[in-house]
Amino acid sequence: MSKENSDEKNKQLDQFRVKDEGEALTTNQGLKMAEDEFSLKAGERGPTLLEDFHFREKMTHFDHERIPERVVHARGFAAHGEFEVYESLAPYTKAKFLNEPGKKTPVFVRFSTVAGSRGSGDLARDVRGFATKFYTEEGNYDLVGNNMPVFFIQDGIKFPDFIHAVKPEPHNEIPQAQSAHDTFWDFVANNQETAHMVMWHMSDRAIPRSFRMMEGFGVHTYRLVNEKGQAFFVKFHWKPVLGVHSVVWDEAQKLSGKDPDFHRRDLYEAIENGDYPVYELGLQIINEEDEFKFDFDILDATKLWPEEDVPVRLVGRMTLNQNVDNYFAETEQVAFHPGHVVPGIDFSNDPLLQTRLFSYTDTQLIRLGGPNFHELPINKSVPEVHNNQRDGYGRQAINTSYVSYHKNSLAENTPRPVSEGEGGYSHYQEKVEGRKVRARSESFKDHFTQAILFWNSMSDVEKQHIVNAFSFELGKCKEVSVREQVLEMFSNVSHELVSAIAENIGLSVPGKKEITYTKSSPALSQENTTKKTDT
Ligand code: HEM
């Protein structure tokens, strides 16, 4: 572990760090034991006795060592670091960690793959998670993002369906960590909002060279809110100072065999050697009154905001400078949640984000065994926690107050809500009205414009890699009807693309489509306005 950090979070963690070296072996009750090799028996060759409390305790604890892995993003690797803001962002947000030039905030970052199990390989073709916990003076703020700027689906009610399609097939648990199977492609073809994200997924972005060379994206549109109560739409970016680099598929396959820990080893060793990874935080900001100025819906998570139209402003830098001491205590038990916000950061009505706000605490209640996982050292906020929540499995706080309810007449000093002026969080008062409907907005129905732009923005080599990836992955799909549906779908993106894939996997090329842009977007300009048909 590097000793660079002496921040507030590290001081707090120090109280929990245990050094066992040179100490007498004890039971969990603190009793020193004289023997740890042989169970207590009735005679040297006789049966083990129930009386052997040391054996029972040791074995029972071992029997309960495993917890459920994350339902997604099970394989991950994390490090501590610090974030430093360059300038005051007070005109946009009242978040204190973004208000003072040069202010430093401790962070914990976990990188992950999505589909594979905890023991799967690092180099799978997959999206990578990029989750950051800022331990701010106003409480924990989590930016739970990915290394791609868009997502497969638009509404989180489809997330269980999507993950069921992506995870290994149910009858044989094959393949372990790749999108090379029928259920994945069947989902894609029958849920065509996936088109844009699948293009990213088949690109080199899905096989990063290193966690140190990956971008991060908050994906959703969030809100920043300033002291005056003015709100701005925002997208968050992490830009690696080392640049974005990938391996090629041949390298990925060889590395998967030779060193399945390639990415975690790379990050661990870089930090141990003092070669600290640095990422700059970028913001894209859209004023509230400009919400409808774009020819895509800014609440649709399958769309990015083109950087040439909404520039990314670099506002701070994050340095990862300390490896964890204990993988389980820190990396496995950390609990991120896009709903962990601080004053000055709020949500938009993106239906994917809205549903995520439910899912994370819900899953962590079972993964981390009850409602007190916020007390685990890695999850503890720097400010103390005060409220009327009580009890539950593993409770550590010894609340001394007699009264644990609000309102009351028996105690004067129970925790009280405080005004915004005193730092109390209050939600942005967005005006919302509408009929209760289960529906997709018309403005979410264009699935191909940005997929086409992505394809058109690729160099020849990158295009070839995308063709190869589709051919490899789709080529593993057994159902010819599914392969055909996928080719038909992506003929909406490029005839050149599907012709090359069809040839590689021995199918006939779907009819050439007149590819017209369903919307001619000023934001997605030039390229698509000048070239209406993909030839
Ligand atoms: C992890 C749900 C979409 C990024 C998780 C976990 C769940 C989940 C249940 C496991 C959490 C845990 O056990 O601690 C969902 C749902 C989604 C969704 C329901 C859509 C409705 C997304 C999107 C992103 C994302 C769009 C990226 C912007 C992550 C990351 C992790 C994660 C990075 C791993 C966090 C860690 O390292 O512990 N998600 N997710 N998820 N999700 Fe999502």
UniProtKB/TrEMBL annotation:
<dbReference type="GO" id="GO:0042744">
    <property type="term" value="P:hydrogen peroxide catabolic process"/>
</dbReference>
<feature type="domain" description="Catalase core">
    <location>
        <begin position="26"/>
        <end position="414"/>
    </location>
</feature>
<keyword id="KW-0349">Heme</keyword>
<dbReference type="GO" id="GO:0004096">
    <property type="term" value="F:catalase activity"/>
</dbReference>
<keyword id="KW-0376">Hydrogen peroxide</keyword>
<feature type="active site">
    <location>
        <position position="146"/>
    </location>
</feature>
<comment type="function">
    <text>Decomposes hydrogen peroxide into water and oxygen; serves to protect cells from the toxic effects of hydrogen peroxide.</text>
</comment>
<dbReference type="GO" id="GO:0046872">
    <property type="term" value="F:metal ion binding"/>
</dbReference>
<feature type="binding site" description="axial binding residue">
    <location>
        <position position="360"/>
    </location>
    <ligand>
        <name>heme</name>
    </ligand>
</feature>
<keyword id="KW-0560">Oxidoreductase</keyword>
<feature type="active site">
    <location>
        <position position="73"/>
    </location>
</feature>
<comment type="similarity">
    <text>Belongs to the catalase family. HPII subfamily.</text>
</comment>
<feature type="compositionally biased region" description="Basic and acidic residues">
    <location>
        <begin position="1"/>
        <end position="22"/>
    </location>
</feature>
<keyword id="KW-0575">Peroxidase</keyword>
<keyword id="KW-0479">Metal-binding</keyword>
<dbReference type="GO" id="GO:0006979">
    <property type="term" value="P:response to oxidative stress"/>
</dbReference>
<keyword id="KW-0408">Iron</keyword>
<feature type="cross-link" description="3'-histidyl-3-tyrosine (His-Tyr)">
    <location>
        <begin position="337"/>
        <end position="360"/>
    </location>
</feature>
<feature type="binding site">
    <location>
        <position position="356"/>
    </location>
    <ligand>
        <name>heme</name>
    </ligand>
</feature>
<protein>
    <recommendedName>
        <fullName>Catalase</fullName>
        <ecNumber>1.11.1.6</ecNumber>
    </recommendedName>
</protein>
<feature type="region of interest" description="Disordered">
    <location>
        <begin position="409"/>
        <end position="429"/>
    </location>
</feature>
<feature type="binding site">
    <location>
        <position position="70"/>
    </location>
    <ligand>
        <name>heme</name>
    </ligand>
</feature>
<feature type="region of interest" description="Disordered">
    <location>
        <begin position="1"/>
        <end position="24"/>
    </location>
</feature>
<feature type="binding site">
    <location>
        <position position="159"/>
    </location>
    <ligand>
        <name>heme</name>
    </ligand>
</feature>
<feature type="binding site">
    <location>
        <position position="367"/>
    </location>
    <ligand>
        <name>heme</name>
    </ligand>
</feature>
<feature type="binding site">
    <location>
        <position position="110"/>
    </location>
    <ligand>
        <name>heme</name>
    </ligand>
</feature>
<dbReference type="GO" id="GO:0005829">
    <property type="term" value="C:cytosol"/>
</dbReference>
<dbReference type="GO" id="GO:0020037">
    <property type="term" value="F:heme binding"/>
</dbReference>
